[in-house]
Amino acid sequence: MDEAGLFKGLKVELLEGEVVVMAPMDSEHRKPLVELNRAIVKLLPDELVLQPQCPIAPDDENEPEPDLAIVADDPNATDNPTTALLAIEIANTSLRDDLNRKARIYARAGIPEYWVVDVKKRALVVHRNPSGGKYKSVKTLTDLSEVKSSAVPELVLDLRKIFVKK
Predict the structure, then answer these.
(1) Cα–Cα distance between 133 and 73 in angstroms, integer?
(2) What is d(CA 166, CA 160) in angstroms, rounded to the nearest whole number?
């Protein structure tokens, strides 16, 4: 359908077999995206790559586009990766979908860690240990916290640097 031009001018993603139109990015979404991108790139080892707003295709029913994903570097890859070590969504208007639908998709895909940046609450919801389509561990950290990735040990971030200053 996309190749036929049905979604021309729209940003869409495939979630559980449904084509979902994504909301346009605003400044409250852009700031954490830019700051996370800047911080993460500096910390990644050479064998990993940060993928900004690129699809992950775990199966035929799903092709979500996380705001950021850390994947194994494969210079010969021609298809979208089927998994990631860490997927990150920045939620301003999409919080319910990110915490529910996307969490299920990423857990079923076996992505070991999934972060949701809750822009309004200035918090990070950290999902770990996927099993049976759910994450066994879900913790909320505030903007005063530091977070260390369990999937990418080199990744340690100070959350105060990602949120828009009020």
Answers:
(1) 26
(2) 12
Q: Torsion over CA of 110, 67, 37 and 106, rounded to 10 degrees?
A: -10
End-to-end, the C-alpha distance of the chain in Å comes to 42
Whether the per-residue pLDDT at 8 is higher than 60: the answer is: no
Strands 18-21 and 68-72, how do they pair? Answer: unpaired
Q: What is the CA radius of gyration of the chain?
A: 15
Burial class (CB in 10 A: 0-12, 13-18, 19+), 160: middle
Structural domains in the chain, sorted by start: 12-161 (3.90.1570.10)
Q: Is the pTM of this model over 0.90?
A: no
